[in-house]
Amino acid sequence: MSTILDLIGNTPLVEAQQLNKNKNVKLYFKLEGQNPGGSVKDRPAYNMIKSAIERGDIDKNTKLIEATSGNTGIALALIANLYQLNIELVMPENATKERVQTMRAYGAKVTLTPSDRGIEAARDYADNKVAHEGYVGLNQFANDDNWKAHYKTTGPEIWNDTEHKVTHFVSSMGTTGTIMGTSTFLKEKNSDIKIVGVQPSDNASIPGIRKWPKEYLPKIFNPKKVDQVIEVSEEEARAMTIRLAKEEGVFAGMSSGGATAAALKLIETLEEGVVVSIVCDRGDRYLSSDLFEE
Q1: How much is the average pLDDT of 125-147?
Q2: What is the rounded distance in angstroms from the CA atom of residue 226 to the CA atom of residue 73?
Q3: How far is residue 169 from each of residues 137, 203, 229, 259, 288, measured CA to CA in Å?
Q4: d(CA 197, CA 239)
Q5: Banded model confidence at residue 78, pLDDT cuts 50, 70, 90
Q6: What pLDDT shows up at residue 61?
Q7: What DSSP string runs through the chain?
Q8: Are 9 and 255 contacting, i.e. CB atoms less than 8 angstroms apart?
Q9: How many angstroms separate the Cα of 145 from the Cα of each of 48, 89, 139, 177, 266?
Q10: pLDDT tier, 252 (very low <50, low <70, confident <90, very high otherwise)
Q11: How far are the Cα atoms of 31, 125, 194, 216, 266 from residue 256, in angstroms, in the given order?
Q12: What pLDDT sits at residue 293?
């Protein structure tokens, strides 16, 4: 008998039909919105909570807290509730209402911090509660169980589903867990596989993709595991998110549009290859924003 947790991972890999114009390159989308919580963050959320319980780091009396821009919070709310854990999730007040409502629907307490300071303010709030009020933080930005989730699942799935033919992996970089774990696995299998990270261009605001100030740089990030970084503008990410829906039938958020824009930039430089790009989540949690308004 399976549970909802058994549905995490093993997400579909589908080939682009319209956007890729290079006939010598295959472009595949890894559809992480098919996870039960609707995003790639189900993987690290499950691994962080399960591993912490197994080590005895947390139990039903623990007061958990985590700063999030959205998807990790939804995943943590879902999984924490299934384990009967109390969790407070902290995020900027400009987060879409779908995110807040979903977290609360799963039973989490949600605290909103001033939007003008972004996710950094949420992280500071959570860190203060951990330091002074007896809370325990999962700290996705410094937690090895974050990237190890992708080492154990995302990487092997891509390797197997491309029949070991993947040549390039493209991923947006937020906490960097996805790219760190997947890179570690794929490089062990074939050191020639190129790992491409996606960052916003200066002053671009793209939910789920960050260019962190040095003091907030995720501790799990190792630049040696990324072969190339491609920057995308907010306009490019928005436009590609809309094209993904209309031309590929892939309804996703802006970070996925950014990753796809970067993947297409990459493909223009390739003579041949098999490119896999992460589609981080589903577009329905952005409907109250202006993302899909043209």
Answers
A1: 96
A2: 26
A3: 30, 25, 11, 10, 31
A4: 19
A5: very high
A6: 96
A7: ---GGGGSS---EEE-SSS---TTEEEEEEEGGGSTTSBTTHHHHHHHHHHHHHHTS--TT-EEEEE-SSHHHHHHHHHHHHTT-EEEEEEETTS-HHHHHHHHHTT-EEEEE-GGGHHHHHHHHHHHHHHHS--EE--TTT-HHHHHHIIIIIHHHHHHHTTT---EEEEE-SS-HHHHHHHHHHHHH-TT-EEEEEEEPTT--BTTB----GGGS-TT--GGG-SEEEEE-HHHHHHHHHHIIIII-----HHHHHHHHHHHHHHTT-SSEEEEEEE-B-GGGGTTTTTT--
A8: no
A9: 5, 19, 10, 9, 30
A10: very high
A11: 10, 28, 19, 23, 15
A12: 78
pLDDT at 203: 78
CA distance 202 to 18: 29
Q: How far apart are the first and last CA of the chain?
A: 45
Q: What is the mean pLDDT of the chain?
A: 95
Q: How far apart are CA 218 and CA 177, in angstroms?
A: 9
Tokens representing residue 227 in the block? 């072969």
Task: Single out the residue of 173, 175, 258, 172 nearest to residue 216, CA to CA.
Answer: 175
Q: Is the pLDDT of residue 292 over 90?
A: no
d(CA 162, CA 28): 9
Give the mean model confidence (pLDDT) for residues 91-110.
Answer: 93
User: So what's the pLDDT on residue 294?
Assistant: 66
Average pLDDT for residues 49-77, to the nearest whole number? 95
- For the record, the structure tokens of 92 come out as 């900027």
Mean of pLDDT values over 239-258? 96
Q: Which residues are catalytic?
A: 41, 255
